[in-house]
Amino acid sequence: MAERGREFYKMCGSGNDFVFFDARDQAPGALETPELIQRMCARGTGIGADGVVFLERSAAATVGLRYFNSDGSPASLCGNATLCTARLAVELGAADPSGFTIATDAGVMAARFRDARPEIDFAPVQELTADAPVRSGAAERRIGYARAGVPHLVVEVPDIEAVPLASRGRELRFDAALRDGANVNFVAPGPDGAWYMRTYERGVEGETLACGTGAVATAAVLGAWGAADGPATTIVTRSGRPLVITRGAAGRGPSLAGEGRIVFVGRLREVE
């Protein structure tokens, strides 16, 4: 049974939405069971979210977070959830906006507010390849792969609106050539110099309106393709909101800047 009356924060990061709990002084308890996470995240019958996040104390960083997908499975990293964690930590007075750290299951990340929006530093992208070992489909120009905390395929297409995302995304997400499966990001260049992205996300098993780690992986793959060579890459998410990935200095990972918005504060009642 859920903790009746427990306060939560509904947050949005460029269209990725989350249910946040401040668990620094009160343990999650039953809130972290897969069954209850699924009920809270259910749209129409629950609060509705892509995932549940617990803001916690950390011996290794200013604050820590634990993230669960909407199906109840844990994920080592979620970029937009980490941006939202940065916003909530500052909102609650737990962090200095000029600079602090966040402990995730993928490691400790530096964070700060720049131009009134949160920004986080990733570790260097791993396993980057411009040519992933999966077969491309009709109208797919090329497929790359990168691990930005979690695994991602990046598929260049001429028109993201024409992508059969539910079917093709699921097919690629479970491709036998990938040892852990992958999130799947379909990208196409826009007339404004930005890249436009749609994501089929693991754990949600469907399209989400944004994906922070996907944007970081996409920027890395675009660089490997020679399609994005500037200091920063703008990825426009399905929500229409941009994520900006800034290339790190030699030996350092990229930074991700985007939205971290508190939509409303509520209290749990009948989600058992």
Characterise this structure:
The chain has 4 helices and 18 strands. The protein is of the alpha+beta class and 272 residues long. The chain folds into 2 domains: 7-122 and 259-267, Diaminopimelate Epimerase, Chain A, domain 1, CATH 3.10.310.10; 126-250, Diaminopimelate Epimerase, Chain A, domain 1 (Roll), CATH 3.10.310.10. The protein has an 18-stranded mixed beta sheet that branches. A hairpin with a 4-residue loop joins strand 4 and strand 5. It is globular. This is Diaminopimelate epimerase. Homodimer. It comes from Gemmatirosa kalamazoonensis. The record marks 152, 201 as: Could be important to modulate the pK values of the two catalytic cysteine residues.
- Rg over C-alpha atoms, rounded to the nearest angstrom: 18 Å
Helix content bin = 10-25%
Mean of the pLDDT scores? 94
* Major pleated sheet: 18 strands, mixed
- Could you state the order of secondary-structure elements as H and E? EEHEEEHEEEEEEHEEEHEEEE
Strand content: 35-45%
Overall CATH class of the largest domain: Alpha Beta
Distance between the termini: 5 Å
Unreliable residue runs: none
Structural class based on helices, strands and sheet pairing: alpha+beta
* Count of separate structural domains: 2
Site (Could be important to modulate the pK values of the two catalytic cysteine residues): 152, 201
Binding site for substrate: 16, 69, 79-80, 183, 201-202, 212-213
GO molecular function: diaminopimelate epimerase activity
Main location: cytoplasm
